[in-house]
Specification:
The protein is of the alpha+beta class and 147 residues long. Helices cover 20% and strands 34% of the residues.
Length: 147
């Protein structure tokens, strides 16, 4: 009876862990980490980003623990590398995307420009901001844990 109870408890713990694996929580701060989170773009260079039309992909990034970035920039998917230097510094490199034709490349071009220029970031678990030096955020993202 005791072994059945322990088995059931272990099974519940494993199921709970797998259901919550999309969020990576730092044991030190209790905050969601910057990596392994789906970050949806909400503002770019001080202007709100329109929500994606139904059935269309939204502009987003994901920073993987491996040091790779992947995402969708509005017309094309992209990938590359990033380096977290300390608690607030980040750099992006080798950003490459597909080359699909698109009628509106403005958001995509601005996002790639922001990634090239970003030096710092700020995040609070729900929002991520990419910053150049001590200036205002160049891009704001919102975490979406359902993705």
């Amino acid at each position: 009876m005791k072994s059945i109870l322990l088995f059931f408890l272990a099974l519940c713990c494993i199921s709970f862990y797998n259901c919550n694996s999309a969020k990576t929580v730092s044991a030190n701060t209790g905050m969601v980490e910057i990596t392994e989170t789906y970050w949806r773009l909400t503002e770019l260079k001080g202007k709100p980003v329109k929500a994606a039309a139904p059935g269309k992909k939204e502009v987003h990034i994901m920073l993987r623990k491996s040091g790779n970035i992947e995402g969708f920039a509005g017309c094309n998917g992209f990938g590359g590398h990033f380096d977290l230097k300390d608690s607030s510094r980040v750099s992006f490199s080798n950003i490459m995307g597909t080359m699909m034709a698109c009628s509106d490349l403005e958001t995509e071009n601005k996002l790639f420009e922001v990634l090239r220029e970003t030096v710092n970031y700020v995040h609070n678990g729900k929002h991520l901001m990419l910053i150049k030096g001590n200036k205002s955020p160049m891009a704001r993202f919102e975490a979406d844990y359902a993705k």
